[in-house]
Amino acid sequence: MGDGKRARDIKREVASELEKAVEFEKADLAETRQEWHDQLRNDGAQLAADVARDKEKVREALDDVRHPERLAEAAEEKLAQAAEDVREVAQAVEHPSEIVAEAKHVVAEKKVAFDETTATIAAEFTSPTDKKRLPAVLRVFGVLLIVGSGVALPGIGKAIYQAVTMFGSGAMSGDGISTIVVTFLHLAVLVALAATFIVFGVRLLRNQRRWAALLSYGLYVLLILGGLCSIMLSGMSIDLVFYLVMLVLTIALQSYLDPTLLEERRAHRKAREAEEHKEGEDGTLGRDPTGKGYIALNFFNLFWIFVVASVLGLIMEEIVHFLFVVPGQWQDRAGLLFGPFSPIYGCGAVLMTVFLNRFHKSNWLVIFLVAAVIGGGFEALTSLFMQYAFGAVAWDYSNMPGSLFGGRTCLPFMACWGLLGVVWIKLLLPFMLRLVNFIPWNWRYVLTTVAACFMLVDAVMTLQSLDCWYMRLSHDPVDTPIQQFYDHEFGDTYMADRFQSMTIHPSDAVRGK
């Protein structure tokens, strides 16, 4: 009984396997048949195309046979071209002076074009005021710049030689890599400044006003960069007076050297005031007049973007800290000595407005990526400067995923910057423009000037108070009147309470190493 059942089961299994094998063979046969049909169809299409091409060639050949004059005309054209080439070669051999004359003509045409380009460039760097002789005091100032820079260059060269020698001998091994980098960067800036001052002095002596005025833009960059290096290496020292005085002199000289620049600014300002009055009445004040961007990138708009974004950024950061970072604990996240300002958000908003203003209608992903790079890069550079200058650390993302540049920024917070950039460009710029336009157009310049002076004083006093805080923690003497003022008014307790998110470790700064 059991054997019969087992036999039936075996038969059913064999039948099932045979059925599967048959089905598989049928499917394989159908697939093979389909492949054959496809291949035959493709081969047929290719054969038809080849036949059509061959028919066209045969038709053209028959057409040429029916019209032999076409072959003769083509042959005659080729022979005529060859004969022309031979005649040109023979003429060049018999009359080489014609080739020379043609070459001279081509060279003369290029020289005329070059002279026109040179004249156009020269016109950009000259002005009618170059004919007006500079006062003797400015020529003396030019001589002093040349002599002073010439005297300073050997000293700077000696300092560079000593630094290189110390670095090569290992005498700077006790210094951190950051100190070494900033030291050499500062020396390079000093060399560039000395060379630029010499060129600037020569331009003054040659009465080249516009050249000197344009050269001053390069001086701005070098003086600011030199001042930042000086702060990182020496703090708020007396050395900064040189950079500040030269910066003020350069700004004052720029307009005087080329009055046309000042006249252009005055004429533009008068025309702009009339336009602003009309735009205020039409409700378009502050918009980009070219239509390429959303907001006009002038000092007024950018300054108030900085102020408003500094306030909004501070409020946002304090709320996030209260709700998510340390729930229930309110922390003052201010970045300046006075006022509810977090300048890193203000600067970030200005940078995003400058770089993304023209992309306000672009895809949000493009804005997100660019804003993430701008925000993360600026955050890292700010952290680097604060730590190198004062040993100050206000944020550290070393323990965050995707930490970059030693914890100065990280991928999650770069994504936050990207999101803020999208929200700022797509949504908040219109709100910002309406908010700024609450300021009456005839009060704009006075109010902006007063506010800008306050923010500048606030920034300078913040740097000086941080420098004094650093000196106290590093046990450096606090003996100058300015240092004693900050030591008395803004002691450790005040600074720790004002900058609650910041800690200062003197060993992290590049000076004193």
From TrEMBL:
It comes from the Bacteria. InterPro entries: CmpB_TMEM229. Keywords: Membrane, Transmembrane, Transmembrane helix. Coiled coil: none annotated. The chain crosses the membrane at residues 136-157, 177-202, 214-234, 240-262, 295-316, 336-357, 364-391, 411-433, 445-466. It holds the Pfam family ABC_trans_CmpB. This is ABC transporter permease. It comes from Adlercreutzia caecimuris B7.
